[in-house]
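Protein Entry — a single chain follows
Next Lines — sequence and tokenised fold
***
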Amino acid sequence: MGFKSISEYNANPVFQTLVADGQTSDPVFAFKLSNSGAELSVGGTDSSLYSGDFTYVKVEKEVCFLLLWSGPN
């Protein structure tokens, strides 16, 4: 989960390669982060792990995934 522009080898990120090769049902990945553990979903989301709608944000700079979060609303 990264960006080709920051790859030391100029390599496509694994997720983008999976999408390009048709190996995912949707071009989506999701993280579940909680005290009980973390989970990564590739190619879709697990609706049993969340409620409500997603909020999408623009990637401002291709350096890393950084999220400033103040907690649930």
Summary: Residues 4-45 form one domain. The mean pLDDT is 84.
